[in-house]
Amino acid sequence: MSEVSVPGTGVRPRVAVVVVTYNSADVLESCLASVRHAGAAEVVLTEVVVVDNDSRDETLALADGIADLPVRVVRLGANLGYAAGINAGVAALSAPHPDAVLVLNPDCRLLPGALETLARGLVRPGVGVVAPRLVNLDGSLQPTLRRRPSLTGAVVESLLGGHLADRLGVGEMVFREAPHRRAARASWVTGAALLVSWRLVEAAGPWDEAFLLYSEETEYLLRAADLGWTTWYEPHAVIEHRGGDYDVRPDMAALLSVNKVTLFQRRHGVVRGLAYRLALVAGLSIRSLAGVATARPACAALLLPSRRVTSLPQAPRLSAKLSKP
Predict the structure, then answer these.
(1) pLDDT per position as a tens digit, 261-316
(2) pTM score, two decimals?
(3) Which among 67, 74, 70 has a CA at the least distance from the CA of 47?
(4) What CA–CA distance (Å, rounded) separates 34 from 51?
(5) Distance of CA 220 to CAs 50, 83, 131, 252, 274, Å?
(6) For tag attachment on the chain, is the N or C end more exposed, with fewer CB atoms within 10 Å?
């Protein structure tokens, strides 16, 4: 298989971009504008594939109307989820294949130098994925780093909260600024923006579409690690990310919680999966008593199969963006 070319050596890496959309007209133009300027002297931007989950706003018109960017649109015909969108986008890439694929949410905006810096990270031996530093619209840190899901971490997070669990080094989510300042290996990272080596694309196969939304990147990156590939976090590559709505929408909070348990049980077995589920239920119950609006429906979904989300909203019934948190 071909090696990823090294920026700065005169051999420019070839990078394709896959953007997954769902009613994303308010953010897509800014996203594609940042991609347009990302193909600098050190990187060849081969093509941009916009995969649309049956948007009913102006998303398709915006994507079709881009004249100065190699954009192609793939219409899925239904809201099939983030993983399905990525798989469709990768399958639609033109031959010859690129050196890497940038998987991108439509509410992301690449800051200057981000793509070249991500591409440099793929040169490291064994690295299959490079993740950027994500920032909010005001430039503040958007926590990106994650630890492997663990029963200990779930219990501590439930009883003490995520921030204290992070300080103790067991929480799944890393909130602190200091770790986000250092380039390093990561167990996994949020999937809003990832540069994936084509060698890993071939080795790992498609993303798992059963997760619909949330935990699909966890599954993919842990599966990559099982195959010997490293996820590398590069803080000097900065991407602005508006962020998802799992913390305000009860149905998405429920889907997030159920998918976390599904993945943990798949990897650790039924008994430990049950313990993990109960730990999450305990934490959600505490937050529900504290008045967190999304906690009760998420807890109900963990306990009652009938309350679980099995498909994503279809426009025009709902018009929220499809976006990773």
Answers:
(1) 999 999 999 999 999 999 999 999 999 999 898 999 999 999 988 778 777 766 55
(2) 0.90
(3) 70
(4) 18
(5) 21, 10, 14, 20, 22
(6) N
